[in-house]
Amino acid sequence: MSEATPDDRYRLITRRLQEVLGGDIVKTLLVQGKTPKCYWGTAPTGRPHVGYFVPLTKIADFLRADVEVKILLADIHAFLDNMKAPLELVGHRTKYYKFVLLAVFESLGIPTSRLTFIEGSSYQLTKEYNLDNYRLCATVTEHDAKKAGAEVVKQVESPLLSGLLYPGLQALDEQYLDVDFQFGGVDQRKIFTFAELYLPRLGYAKRAHLMNAMVPGLAGGKMSSSDPDSKIDFLDPPDAVRRKIKKAFCEEGNVTDNGVLAFVEAVLIPISELRLERAASTANGSAVSLANGDGSKDEGAQKPFVFDGAPPGTVFSVSRDEKYGGPLHFSSYDALREAFETRQVHPKDLKNVVADALVSLLSPIRKRFEESKEWQEVTERAYPSPVPEKKKKKEKVYHPPPPGKGRNANVATTHPAANATASTGQTDDPPLSSTAETGSTNAN
C-alpha cells in the first residue's frame, strides 16, 4: 500500500477497533514515512477458539498498511496466570498455538512470511529483562498491579504473587520487542494504561495501544477457552459446529444480548469485507492483493459470505425460504441488525447461515491438522486426554457380631458351661470371687 496517504493508512490501521489510546504516536510515524511496529500477544493456555478470528483478521489490516507485526507467544505469562498452563505443558502448548495461528493466517490469505513469531521465554529470562522487572517491582504499588490485571489475570480468593507480576511483564514486552504500539482486546485496557504510566518512569518511551471489541460467547458473556459450550474450537468438526450454533442463544428481535448476531459483526462481516477487497484489488489488476504485501498466493481466498446475484455493495447475505420473501442482502452490520430487530430475519435463518460460514472457515484449518502428524502429536502432548480415576475397591473389614449372635451364637450353644447351665436351670454365672477362692474352672 505504498501509494496510500498517511491518513488512508491510519484509517485502515484503526478501522473496526473499539478504542485507540495514543493514536498520535502512530500518525506521526506515518507522516514521517516510517514503518510502524506492533505486537499482538497471546498466552498459550486453553485451546484457541474462533474468537481469535477477530484479532487475526485485524492483523491483515496492519499488514496491508505496511505495519511490521510481531506475534508474541507468551509462554511465561501462561505459567504465571494462576498456573493455567502447568510448566511441563507450556512448551507443547506454545507449539500448538503456533500451528493453529499459522493455519488460520494462511486460511485467511494473510502472508505468514511477513509475520515474526517470538516466544516470551526467548528474552524474558535474560539478565537485562529481569533487572528491569525488579526496577518495576520497586516502583509499582500492590494496588496498581492488582488493578491492572483484574480483567485478564484469573481472579481467585487467595491470589498468587505471580498474578501481580503479569501486568509489569506485559508492559516491559513493549520495550523489549521494540514496538510502537501494542494491539489487544479491550479487556486489557487496564494493563495498557498501566504500561503508559510506568514505562516512562523507567526511562522508556510511551507506546500507543489499539483495542478490538471482545466476542461474546454463544450463550452470552465472554467467549472463553475454559468453557466448551461458550466457544467453537478451530478444530471442531462440522457436526459439532452446527450443534453449538443451534444451541446458541439467539432470541427473535433481541439485538442487545445475542452471541450469534455479535459473531456476525465481529468475525464474519470483517472477513467477508476482507475477501471482497481482495477480489476488487485483483479485478483492478493489482499485482499484490489487499491482504498480501509480497504477491504470495492467497490460500484462503474463498468467496465472501455473499450469495451469487446479490446487489453491489453487499457484505453479507442470509438465506430465507421463498415463501417468506427469499434471501436477504445487507451492505453493513447495522442494516442486518435493524432487520433482525424488526424480525425480518428469523433466528433459525441467521443460525443456518452462520453455521455454514463457520464450517467453510474451519474446513481448511481442520484439513491441515489432519494432514500433519506432527501437529497431531503436539496436540496430544499439549492437551492430554484426562485419565479417568479408577474406583478403589472397598476393603472388607470384619466386624465381630455382638455376643450371642452370628458366630458367637454357635459357640454359646456348644460351650460346656452353657450345657451345664441349661441342665441345672441356672441362668447366672458363679461369682468371680468363689471361682478365685476354690481355683475351680467349672460350675458345680
Major sheet size, sense and barrel closure: 6 strands, mixed
The appropriate CATH architecture is 3-Layer(aba) Sandwich
Q: Over all CA atoms, what is the radius of gyration?
A: 34 Å
Alpha-beta classification: alpha/beta
Along the chain, the helix and strand elements come as HEHEHEHHEHHHHEHEHHEEHHHHHH
- Uncertain runs: 287-300, 418-430, 432-444
Question: How would you describe what is shown here?
Answer:
- The structure is a single chain.
- The chain has 444 residues and is of the alpha/beta class.
- The chain has one domain (6-382): Rossmann fold (3-Layer(aba) Sandwich).
- Helix content is 47%, strand content 8%.
- It is built from 18 helices and eight strands.
- The protein has helices spanning 6-14, 23-31, 53-64, 75-80, 87-107, 121-124, 127-137, 142-148, 162-176, 189-198, 238-247, 259-283, 333-341, 347-371, 373-382, 407-414, 416-424, 432-438; strands at 19-21, 37-42, 68-73, 115-119, 181-185, 208-212, 316-318, 328-330.
- The strands form two sheets. It has a six-stranded mixed beta sheet, with helices on both faces. Strands 7-8 form a two-stranded antiparallel ribbon.
- Strand 2 (37-42), helix 3 (53-64) and strand 3 (68-73) form a beta-alpha-beta unit.
- The longest helix is centred in the middle third of the chain and has 25 residues, at 259-283.
- It is globular and about 100 Å long.
- The chain starts with 5 loop residues before the first helix and ends in a 6-residue tail after the last helix.
